[in-house]
Design goal:
The protein is an alpha/beta fold. About 35% of the residues lie in helices and about 20% in strands. The protein folds into 3 domains: about 5-125, Methylthiotransferase, N-terminal domain (Rossmann fold); about 135-360, tm_1862 like domain (pyruvate-formate lyase- activating enzyme), CATH 3.80.30.20; about 370-429, Beta Barrel (OB fold (Dihydrolipoamide Acetyltransferase, E2P)), CATH 2.40.50.140. It is built from 13 helices and 18 strands. It binds iron/sulfur cluster.
Length: about 425
């Protein structure tokens, strides 16, 4: 009885899934469900899965099996599976894991609420139960993607590109600001496409400006920008608006023209370099994050060397490296998977080592400087925070000496006194 209506929601994968999960939590909360953060205290477990690449799929399946094991032991009553893996492989999953009570697709939150005996509060769709520290929040501005990247299954799972209603997003952002959110992190599969379906043109720059006019919002941060149609006015907006972080996450995936062509990225090496030059010259103190894929089918040693030299010359601030994951039904699938797994690992390790050196060299330049830092949490002897250069969960952090003047969720000017490869160390002056 004491577990009645208690739910644990496990959100896997990317920040877009996090936001979907937060919206679902709000709807269920409004239907008198209560959230617990441990399966053992729950009557039902909902797993919001990720189905993007192999490692993510494995993690989702293992999490489902763990919940099913608890159900078999009678510790929980219901296992509910939703999200991208379920959207992509529902019929297989139903056959392979029949113990699951219900499978839902990627955007079936109304069905989940009704399946649990509730009803959807349509007028509160933007409302969320924040699962991030309440001074920052992800703002998901669109769904789906129109880009034809050969390796990517997301358009198969999430469909064609759709901007969310701008007025509703402004309302959502204002509600978040009222709850204490100071930093909004813009996410979508391709944030640079924002507005094209509503206004016939990309309006992200103006939208970001509107967000900075909301009381309480101090930082607006841009993730998931797409290189081949990067609007110039975003550069001007970021450069001129102090509330927009001089930070851009711009996944590039590769630089060799042969590989970019095969990946259907819609941009060449020359155009990529031109864009980066424009970004760096147009935005003072820009922090540029990107991601690359190694081991794409037929990636030659020459292609890899080209990528190595490009990273070395460009000196990105933040770099993520992924092994190519061959995904069914993508246009790249018929190309096979020619680069052996060990060679993918070797190439990834070589690039990570290169980036570690670049990151350390850049971090050293901040010693002695004062940096505006938001404090996320207390951990051991340090308050842990982030500067404009750091997106949560993926970038470096600032470890700030304990000080009675500090409290979580606030901004401080922190004097940087030391560094390591990825993080900075500082204290209040
Ligand atoms: S931009 Fe490319 S990689 Fe990103 S979600 Fe769209 S298709 Fe996938």
């Amino acid at each position: 009885m004491k577990k009645k209506n208690k739910i644990e929601l496990i959100s896997l994968g990317c920040s877009k899934n996090t936001v979907d999960g937060e919206r679902l939590m709000k709807q269920l909360e409004l239907n008198d469900f209560e959230f617990v953060d441990n399966s053992k205290d729950a009557e039902s477990v909902i797993i919001n899965t990720c189905g993007f690449i192999e490692p993510a799929k494995e993690e989702s399946v293992n999490t489902i099996l763990e919940a099913v094991a608890l159900k078999k032991k009678g510790e929980i009553k219901k296992v509910i599976v939703a999200g991208c893996l379920s959207e992509r492989y529902m019929e297989d999953l139903k056959k392979e894991i029949p113990e699951v009570d219900a499978f839902y697709g990627a955007e079936q939150y109304e069905e989940i609420v009704r399946g649990l005996g509730g009803n959807l509060k349509k007028n509160l769709l933007g409302e969320r139960v924040l699962t991030t520290p309440n001074h920052y929040a992800y703002l998901k501005i669109s769904e789906g993607c129109d880009n034809p990247c050969s390796f990517c299954a997301i358009p198969l799972i999430r469909g064609k590109y759709r901007s969310f209603n701008e007025e509703r997003l402004i309302g959502e952002a204002a509600a978040l600001a009222k709850e204490g959110v100071k930093e909004l992190i813009l996410i979508g599969q391709d944030t640079t496409d924002f507005g094209k379906d509503f206004y016939g043109k990309r309006t992200l720059a103006a939208f970001m400006n509107r967000l900075t006019e909301i009381d309480g919002i101090e930082w607006v941060r841009l993730l998931y920008a797409y290189p081949s149609h990067f609007p110039q006015n975003i550069i001007d907006q970021i450069a001129s608006n102090p509330k927009i972080c001089s930070y851009i996450d711009l996944p590039l995936q590769h630089i060799s023209d042969d590989v970019l062509k095969s990946m259907r990225r819609g941009i060449s090496k020359r155009k990529t370099i031109e864009l980066i030059d424009k970004l760096k010259s147009g935005i003072p103190n820009l922090t540029l994050r990107t991601t690359f894929i190694v081991g794409y089918p037929n990636e030659t040693e020459k292609d890899f060397d080209e990528l190595y030299n490009f990273i070395k010359e460009t000196e990105f601030d933040r770099v993520g490296i992924f092994d190519y994951s061959r995904e069914e039904d993508t246009t790249g699938y018929p190309l096979g998977d020619s680069v052996p797994a060990e060679e993918k690992e070797r190439r990834k390790a070589v690039l990570m080592e290169l980036q570690r050196e670049i990151s350390a060299k850049k971090n050293e330049t901040f010693v002695g400087k004062k940096m505006k830092t938001i404090i996320d949490r207390l951990e051991g002897d340090y308050f842990v925070g982030r500067t404009e250069r750091d997106a949560p969960e993926v970038d470096g952090e600032v470890l700030v000496e304990k000080d009675v003047r500090i409290s979580k969720g606030n901004f401080y000017d922190v004097e940087i006194v030391d560094f390591n490869d990825y993080d900075l160390f500082g204290r209040l002056s």
